[in-house]
Design goal:
By secondary structure, the chain is α/β, with parallel strands linked by helices. Strands 13, 14, 15, 16 and 17 form a 5-stranded parallel beta sheet that branches. Strands 2-3-4-5 form a 4-stranded antiparallel beta sheet, with no helix packed on it. Strands 1-10-9 form a 3-stranded antiparallel beta sheet, with no helix packed on it. It is built from 10 helices and 17 strands. The radius of gyration is 22 Å and the shape is globular.
Length: 352
């Protein structure tokens, strides 16, 4: 049995939104047997090829990949069970784990797993021997012949650990243990729905919110046709609100609702699950698009950057728009200049 997680060391699940009813599931694959191999995006399935609660095995870049539909949320993991060598694509899906068809080993406490995972990674970074015995991980396996090992490189206690979390419990764990937070489904106007939980976890551990690097951001596009820029981004948000989970569990939708978009989250999800895709896209509020991106003139984008700063964001991530690589680089360059201007304004205000 292995954990059902969106990411594994060699696979990163990526949604590519297409026409309604033709959503493509892709993964970033790196071939470990090729030195310095760069990750590549490989299309592996259509979302409707895999029924909710089911899994399948696909092949990409010489690797077997198991893909599962957990209530509309898709997960990709290596297909081979590390314990018994069975194909996990033929296993059974239960809640947030997939059971190996040979021996049924299972874990089903995501936050507990995350806590132990962080502790193991931190031991590795610190140069310690990797011996760990928790509720979810045993290193080395007690029934095996392995022995505790340490990484070949020297320990480095200064390597930060960032968590990309959404649920309240996971956000509190971020505040307790992490050096940084990589946020999503975030608007500066709804920051309290995230930061209150992170702050609680931090304070319970004797820390403060200021000890954590808070990273979020969105798309950046310069231009005057704001309506067109908003319209082209509604489909992606509709997919997030409607398809990234089941009717009962959609953590992205829940996060947006905590951030002030309760009605929109409910309505868009309802329309999407009823397969009324065009209506779901139309139901995405313009304001939500504008609050999750940085669009428009330089001054408009600069104002949104100020909103992130004032909300408490310490590192701004940007996804520059462009039809070509050069256009994206040009957009990125302009965005960096605006970030510098906003940072300079902050420094000047602090010194006055």
């Amino acid at each position: 049995m292995t954990d059902l997680q969106p990411n594994t060391p060699c696979l990163t699940l990526k949604y590519q939104f297409g026409e309604p009813g033709s959503e493509v599931i892709s993964v970033h694959v790196r071939r470990f047997f090729v030195p310095f191999d760069m990750p590549r995006t490989v299309k592996i399935a259509k979302s409707y090829d895999i029924e909710p609660g089911e899994g399948t095995t696909v092949f990409a870049e010489g690797q077997r990949i198991a893909v599962f539909n957990s209530g509309g949320e898709f997960h990709a993991i290596s297909d081979t069970c590390v314990h018994a060598g069975a194909s996990l694509g033929t296993g059974w899906l239960q809640d947030d784990y997939v059971a190996c068809p040979l021996h049924g080993w299972r874990f089903n406490k995501p936050v507990g797993r995350m806590r132990e995972y962080i502790e193991i990674v931190r031991k590795a970074f610190h140069g310690e021997k990797l011996e760990y015995h928790g509720d979810h991980y045993d290193m080395p396996l007690p029934e095996g012949e392995g022995k505790p090992l340490r990484l070949a490189q020297a320990g480095n206690e200064n390597i930060p650990i960032y968590l990309a979390t959404l649920s309240p419990k996971a956000l509190r764990l971020t505040g307790e243990l992490a050096d940084g937070w990589c946020g999503t489904s975030f608007t500066p106007e709804g920051a309290a729905g995230f930061f209150d939980h992170i702050r609680t976890g931090a304070e319970e551990a004797g820390r403060s919110l200021s000890d954590i690097d808070l990273q979020v951001g969105g798309g950046v596009q310069f231009g005057d046709d704001l309506k067109a820029m908003v319209r082209t981004r509604k489909a992606g948000l509709a997919f997030t609100l409607g398809a990234m989970g089941s009717a009962d569990h959609n953590f992205y939708n829940d996060a947006f609702k905590r951030g002030g978009y309760e009605e929109a989250g409910i309505e868009v999800q309802r329309l999407w699950l009823e397969r009324k895709r065009d209506e779901a896209i139309a139901a995405v509020p313009d304001e939500l698009v504008l609050h999750t991106n940085m669009l428009g003139t330089k001054e408009m984008i600069k104002e949104r950057m100020r909103a992130y700063r004032d909300a408490g964001i310490t590192t701004l991530r940007v996804d520059p728009y462009g039809q070509s690589l050069q256009e994206r680089l040009d957009t990125l360059g302009e965005a960096v200049e605006l970030v510098r201007e906003v940072s300079a304004d902050t420094a000047a205000a602090a010194g006055s």
